[in-house]
UniProtKB/TrEMBL annotation:
Residues 167-275 form the Probable transposase IS891/IS1136/IS1341 domain. Keywords: DNA recombination, DNA-binding, Metal-binding, Transposition, Zinc. GO terms for biological process: DNA recombination; transposition. Residues 394-407 have a biased composition (Basic residues). It comes from Streptosporangium saharense. Residues 386-429 are annotated as: Disordered. This is Putative transposase.
Length: 429
């Protein structure tokens, strides 16, 4: 089974500067290759990874700052871009910003990475062109290294190893037949169908006020100044604490769910749509004016939703389920909070408040979140018991990997059909 191991690096000043240059080069290759793909699409043409990789070799001979960084990191950037465009489409892939995107690059060949244990707390890894880098080994690797990713989080650099631990998932869960429906909310982060709540406050009121002060202080600084960099670093440290608490809560909650239940059912929530900004509506009686749309209240709700990390909890549960043999599925969330699970009557008036559900038909009374979690579990059991036609349990769609025969044939066909004269003006790597 493939698993990840992440450690904090202890880089020297020279290694830190070189890592920044590698991250900047990978970001430049990503943005240039993405712009090239979009230019091709505007002309009803197509370009793939193989042709861009050939152009990258030519670009390294012209630009020295590309030749000094590890070439495998640049090629891996093109591979990641190709997979992102295949999965999401060329126009939905985002640019990488120097200010908002943390530098990150991957060494794809694990055979070229050497790891040595120095003592009980420290170890070192030899990375191509970066040399020996020390890291705090907080847990054993436990397997063979497949690749390594170096990234920066705030002021600290981390290295993440993809490890093959030779551990196969269990054929059956430790608690066969156990199941739980999960209702994610704002007042209580996670509510289980058996009435158990998982909740944590990630930022206290004082920390929220302090973060607001730091944001105002950052807004008053001039772009590019030393004071702005200092204010941004201070704000980043304050927000990183909250982010680490959220990640820790998601990991612990997912561990409890995956080890306790064989079937875990979540709602399939469109979180991006739920946290969209409220758009003003024009007033029909007064042309040119808009009706009050409660943008302030919607903004507060959006912040509350994003603060709970709903999607992170689901991702952590899916990751932990690989080790316990659990099944994680999602169901349609429509009417789960206003449908009585006793008489099946759908009535919005049954949801008296955030915490009280009282059916207007049969009088069934229960905690609203627990009641919704039971409806989610019922829908999940029905969907899990009836697999889709033609799909076997555990099967998944194969990835669109770079190097497949179809991709190579398409690239060769495009290279033959399109001449340089027809594609004049298209940027090259």
């Amino acid at each position: 089974m493939l698993t990840g191991r992440k450690y904090r690096l202890d880089l020297t000043a020279e290694q830190t500067a070189f890592a920044e240059r590698i991250g900047g080069a990978c970001r430049s290759v990503w943005n240039t290759a993405l712009e090239q793909r979009r230019t091709y699409r505007r002309r009803d043409a197509w370009i793939g990874y193989h042709e861009q990789a050939q152009q990258l070799v030519e670009a390294k001979t012209e630009f020295g700052w590309l030749a000094e960084v590890p070439g495998h990191c640049l090629q891996q950037t093109l591979i990641d871009l190709d997979q992102a465009c295949s999965r999401h489409g060329t126009w939905k892939v985002r640019w990488k910003s120097r200010a908002r995107t943390a530098p990150s690059f991957r060494f794809p060949e694990g055979g070229k990475i050497t790891i040595e244990r120095l003592n009980r707390r420290w170890a070192r890894a030899k990375l191509p062109k970066l040399g020996w880098v020390r890291f705090r080994i907080t847990r054993p690797l436990g397997g063979k290294v497949k690749n390594a990713t170096v990234s920066r989080d705030g002021a600290h650099w981390h290295i993440s190893f993809l490890v093959e631990d030779d551990i196969s998932p269990p054929e059956r869960h430790a608690h066969p037949g156990s199941a739980a429906g999960i209702d994610r909310g704002v007042v209580k982060v996670v509510t289980r169908s058996d009435g158990v709540f998982h909740h944590q406050v990630f930022a206290t009121d004082r920390e929220v006020e302090h973060a607001a002060v730091l944001q105002r202080r950052l807004a008053r600084t001039r772009k590019g100044s030393a004071r702005r960099k200092k204010a941004a670093a201070t704000l980043g440290r304050a927000l990183a604490k909250v982010r680490r608490r959220r990640a820790d809560f998601a990991a612990k909650t997912a561990c409890v769910l995956a080890t306790s239940f064989e079937l875990i059912v979540f709602e399939k929530l469109a979180i991006r749509n739920m946290t969209a900004t409220a758009k003003p509506k024009p007033d029909a009686d007064q042309p040119g004016s808009y009706l009050p749309n409660g943008a302030a209240a919607k903004s507060g709700l959006n912040k509350a939703i994003l603060d709970k990390g709903w999607h992170r909890i689901e991702l952590a549960a899916r990751s932990k389920a690989r080790q316990t043999g659990s099944h994680v599925i999602t169901v349609n969330p429509a009417y789960t909070s206003i449908t009585c699970r006793v008489c099946s009557v759908v009535d919005p008036k049954s949801r008296e408040s955030q915490a009280v559900f009282r059916c207007t038909s049969c009088g069934h009374t229960e905690h609203a979140d627990v009641h919704a979690a039971n409806n989610i579990l019922t829908a999940g059991r029905a969907e899990f018991a009836q697999p889709r036609p033609g799909a076997r349990a555990g099967a998944r769609k194969p990835r669109n990997r770079v190097g497949r025969k179809a991709n190579r044939q398409a690239t060769a066909a495009q290279a033959t059909a399109q001449t340089e004269a027809e594609l004049a003006g298209i940027p090259r790597l």
